[in-house]
Amino acid sequence: MECPHIPIIPYREFSLPVHDKAAARNIPIAGELDLTMRCNLRCLHCYCPQDINKKELTFHEISNILDEITDAGCLWLLITGGEPLMRSDFLDIYTYAKKKGLIITIFTNGTLVTPKIADYLKEWPPFLVEISLYGATQETYEKVTDVPGSYEECLNGIETLLQRKIPLRLKTLVTTLNKHELWMMKRYAEERGLEFRFDALINPRLDGSEKPCRLRISPREVVELDLADSKHHEAWKKLCQELPWGPPRRIDILYTCSRHMWDFHITAYGELQACLMAQEPSFDLRQNPFSKCWPELIREFQALKPEEKNRCRKCELFTLCGPCPAWAQLENGDPNTVVEYTCQIAHLRAEGFRREGFILKGGGKDGKESKKTLQETGSIRGEAYTRGGCVIRLQD
Amino acid sequence: MNLLEKVYKISDSIVFRKIADEFILVPIRNNVSDLESIYTLNEVGARIWEMIDGKRKVKEIKDIIVEEFEVTPKKAEEDLIELLQKLEKIEGIKKV
């Protein structure tokens, strides 16, 4: 921007202190909103169950919720699903959210992006659109999505957004079906000047079904990918240097992550939760306003206590692993149990990181223990709200 | 025409938010000059923003600032005009 007299600071220098202030005051600065659980694809790893007995929020109900969350201080909103573009009123909802002054990220599979939608997003730009790419070839992509023709639709969606210079990032979930094409997918993104990220951790479906877990790559393969990818490698190295290794600092609370102090999740049916996976406690926003439910949610969430049998809280790798009680609930039906898959990954990561010479003990560079755990900082998976760009202070 | 006699209104392409003691301007539409950016204001800037209503003259805004904050009229005028020019440049406000 040609305005040399206005001080410009990097986006993260604005974002991080605002998040810190929000956490200290329990301001719900960021949230996720599922517009629907419906999807036009049938991905074999999908975590979204469809409950035909539940009724999706209407546009009117969503508008009320958007009013309430902005009044409460929400600034960053992730619009997701299901596939959010399945809703015929997507643009109405999006416009309403934009006009509230929300900074919006959209998660989509990209297959339903039309020139009309892309033109609209150019006029009312989102902070970021993130498209999931499931393979670098039609065969692999459609083996994952189980919908013929979806590969071409996805690529068309990407190109349509690219032509209009919509802020875009690609990502993938690595499964046994597409792992051999991971680097091809990365190259595809990079050739187009797009950021790319991947995740290899597959959790059970939100109704507890283990079907998605059948596509998990082995724990050893997960760690090999961590070390093979330069971005993951650097991120883990940095975290290893900054984190105090050992059991959690607080053993009196079940959920040690601090995200729930400033972040929330709203389901397609109007249920307010701490996050996507932690389905209890839950509050019905059709019955009560957000302003009433939010403090209750924090209070009830923090009141959850770990049981004596909880092995994770005594584990030396706790801060590296960041075990999630909600995942344990989905996987084992009990939040105080170990998810063997992620546990194995944590142990293999520790081995691998030692071999790589990452610092494993003592925390920060000067030997002082860092205050933040992996969960508190947000793991390298949680990148929904970060992107380039800048903040301009109009007055100092 | 003297700038102090002018009247500004807020553009509907930018939204003002106050969150956690931060005064933030969020561009929402493509006619704002730089959508890659988010803008912040300090307390005085936020107060000025509140007073830009399409009716008040710049001079009236200046008088209120002088009354509410410890600042000389000269300094208030300089700062106010500088801010208004910046806001106009990013298309956050328009002359009526």
Category from helices, strands and their pairing of chain B:
alpha+beta
CATH classification, class level of the largest domain in chain A: Alpha Beta
What distance lies between the first and last C-alpha atoms of chain A, to the nearest angstrom?
18 Å
Reading the helices and strands of chain A in chain order gives EHEHEHEHEHHEHEHHEEEHHHHHE
Oligomeric state, counting identical vs distinct chains: heterodimer
Number of helices of chain A: 14
Shape verdict of chain B: globular
Strand order of the largest sheet of chain A: 7-6-5-4-3-2-8-9-10
Supply the CATH superfamily name of the largest domain in chain A. Aldolase class I
Write down the overall mean pLDDT of chain A: 88
Examine the coordinates and then state which fold CATH places here, giving the name of the CATH topology of chain B: Outer Surface Protein A, domain 3
Keywords summarizing the entry:
heterodimer; A: 396 residues; alpha/beta; TIM Barrel; nine-stranded mixed beta sheet; 11 strands; 37% helix; 12% strand; disordered N terminus; B: 96 residues; alpha+beta; Outer Surface Protein A, domain 3; three-stranded antiparallel beta sheet; 3 helices; 5 strands; 24% strand
Task: Characterize the structure shown.
The complex is a heterodimer of chains A (396) and B (96). Chain A has 396 residues and is an alpha/beta fold. Chain A is 37% helix and 12% strand. Chain A has two domains: 7-201 and 257-304, Aldolase class I (TIM Barrel); 218-254 and 305-380, no CATH class. With 96 residues, chain B is of the alpha+beta class. In chain B, helix 2 crosses helix 3 (73-89). The two termini of chain B are 13 Å apart. Classes of the chains: A alpha/beta (396), B alpha+beta (96).
Structure summary:
The complex is a heterodimer of chains A (396) and B (96). Chain A has 14 helices and eleven strands. Chain A has 396 residues and is an alpha/beta fold.
SSE topology sketch:
The complex is a heterodimer of chains A (396) and B (96).
Chain A: E1 8-10, H1 11-25, E2 30-34, H2 59-71, E3 76-80, H3 90-99, E4 103-108, H4 115-123, E5 128-132, H5 138-145, H6 150-163, E6 168-173, H7 182-191, E7 195-199, H8 219-228, H9 230-242, E8 263-266, E9 271-273, E10 283-284, H10 290-302, H11 318-321, H12 325-332, H13 340-356, H14 374-377, E11 390-393
Parallel strand pairs in A: 2-3, 2-8, 3-4, 4-5, 5-6, 6-7
Antiparallel strand pairs in A: 1-11, 8-9, 9-10
Chain B: E1 8-10, E2 14-19, E3 22-27, E4 37-41, H1 43-51, H2 58-68, H3 73-89, E5 93-95
Antiparallel strand pairs in B: 1-5, 2-3, 3-4
